[in-house]
Amino acid sequence: MISRSNVAARKIELIGYERLRIYFLSRRDHTQPGKPFIQGTRYQDILRIYECDEKLRAACFAAVGQFEILLRNRVSEELSSRFGSHPYFTSAAFRSKELQLEALQKLGSVYTTSKDQRAKHYKMTYSAPPLPAIWTLKEFLTFGATSRLLKALDGPVVTAVAADFGLPSDRLLENWVEALVDLRNICAHHDRLFNRIFQKQPSRLRNANVPTAAVPNNRLRAVLQCLDHMMTSRGAVVSAEAEVGRILGRYPEITLAEAGY
């Protein structure tokens, strides 16, 4: 039901029909010929669902951003304590020579393309080493680049970082970080969280029941439970799961199942 068609048309123009389409489809009866809207559906309901999704993205993006900074810092600390200021030139820091070379190429690309003033200052001031110290370089890394670096590093390095985030193995940390990178990218590109089934899903930490067995691993709540576990283990409580729950409580137009809760 559309009470003010001119206002509705303007909203579609501003947001874009293709962006709203998935929300419209969620309120159609797919068992009936022509897939009519479910009785009682209002245009305002669709906009409210869209608005809720925007708020969910903002909350998740902020929470993952805090974790990203903590992870970069912890990786930098572990590497510098073991291998000094420029660990990328030490083969013992990596799982293999091939992975070290790949990491060097990626880090070099991140550094040379960075617009950060600290990168510009290093380029203008120093010619050697060709890359700045790890505690500076880590500031230029994207979350995706950090995730790839993590996979290249020597096992004991990653295991030590994982332990500080409350995880028993490097593989579990890498798995959870991959899931968070996926969530971060969805939010950064303004994609939908509504009815989202995540391709990257976290494995279960069984001794802590995270994510809880009641939550499918490919839904939003599971990913946020993993995030909260790691942040709490580092002493930086974010409570992303609770924050998203509060947002959903303000939007009865969207069901918990649709939000991955």
Detailed description of the structure:
With 261 residues, this protein is an all-alpha fold. Helix content is 59%, strand content 0%. The chain has helices at residues 5-15, 17-25, 43-83, 97-113, 117-125, 134-137, 143-152, 155-164, 170-188, 220-233, 240-249. Helix 7 (143-152) packs antiparallel against helix 9 and helix 8 (155-164) crosses helix 9 (170-188). The longest helix is centred in the first third of the chain and has 41 residues, at 43-83. The model has no long low-confidence stretch (mean pLDDT 91).
Helix/strand/pairing class, anyone? mainly alpha
- Uncertain regions spanning at least 5 consecutive residues: none
Helix fraction by DSSP (H/I, runs of at least 4): 55-70%
Rg, alpha carbons: 22 Å
The coarse overall form would be: elongated
**Cα-to-Cα separation, first versus last residue:** 28 Å
